[in-house]
Design a protein that fits this description.
The complex is a heterodimer of chains A (113) and B (115).
Chain A (H helix, E strand, L loop, with lengths): L2 E4 L4 E4 L4 E3 L1 E4 L5 E7 L5 E7 L5 E4 L2 E4 L9 E3 L8 E8 L7 E3 L3 E6 L1
Parallel strand pairs in A: 2-12
Antiparallel strand pairs in A: 1-4, 3-9, 5-6, 5-10, 7-8, 8-9, 10-11, 10-12
Chain B lengths: L4 E3 L2 E4 L5 E6 L6 E8 L3 E9 L14 E5 L5 E5 L8 E8 L9 E2 L3 E5 L1
Parallel strand pairs in B: 2-10
Antiparallel strand pairs in B: 1-3, 3-7, 4-5, 4-8, 6-7, 8-9, 8-10
Classes of the chains: A mainly beta (113), B mainly beta (115).
Chain lengths: 113, 115
């Protein structure tokens, strides 16, 4: 079955540091890949997505590239801010048909000023 | 426009009681999903509705869990004879499913506590 393995947290960084949160997946076919974010006290919201190999998703300064050869979708940001403190979830959905999401365990990110 | 709404936002119940959780998807969205977020299990899929097709119930953890979607819109998740391990945040999401790979929009969740 499908699965997502995500970097264990928590992760604590100083403001303006470079961020990488690793995500690898196991799936049949060509899944779509997502990063969702959950800010404190808020609901889950889509951060970025990529639907085919070599696509790069980007939003709010975050980027992730769909790497089929390494089955990875690592999240990166060049300079994090305190407002980026949140829990980040990597997820995938099947290529077609039922698009239920399979999530990683989540990574709690804390940015200190 | 309005997003996905869920009610109640919080529910405290006693072990053995039944509970109903409601989800109002974004208007026009044909696909509706229920997920559960708990400390021990993370975020896990429960059930999926798409149009008039038979729902995918493959994620329901036991036969105490059921869900229905009336008129292709509002959905109700019912948990019978609740157990303490049912305590979690229950999330609903919807998507438009026009061309596949559509973004799922999540509601704020219902936090369920079983005493």
């Amino acid at each position: 079955g499908n699965s997502v393995t995500q970097m264990e947290g928590p992760v604590t960084l100083s403001e303006e540091a470079f961020l990488t949160i690793n995500c690898t997946y196991t799936a049949t076919g060509y899944p779509s890949l997502f990063w969702y974010v959950q800010y404190p006290g808020e609901g889950l919201q889509l951060l970025l997505k990529a639907t085919k190999a070599d696509d790069k998703g980007s939003n709010k300064g975050f980027e992730a590239t769909y790497r089929k050869e390494t089955t990875s979708f690592h999240l990166e940001k060049g300079s994090v801010q305190v407002s980026d403190s949140a829990v980040y979830f990597c997820a995938l959905s099947a290529a077609f048909g039922n698009e239920k999401l399979t999530f990683g365990t989540g990574t709690r990110l804390t940015i200190i000023p | 426009g309005a997003g996905v709404s869920q009610s109640p936002s919080n529910k405290v119940t006693e072990k053995g009681k039944d509970v109903e959780l409601r989800c109002d998807p974004i208007s026009g969205h044909t696909a509706l999903y229920w997920y559960r977020q708990s400390l021990g299990q993370g975020l896990e899929f429960l059930i999926y509705f798409q149009g008039n097709s038979a729902p995918d119930k493959s994620g329901l953890p036991s036969d105490r869990f059921s869900a229905e979607r009336t008129g292709g819109s509002v959905s109700t998740l019912t948990i019978q004879r609740t157990q303490q391990e049912d305590s979690a945040v229950y999330l609903c999401a919807s998507s438009s499913y026009t061309s596949g790979q559509e973004t799922q929009y999540f509601g704020p969740g219902t936090r369920l506590l079983v005493l």
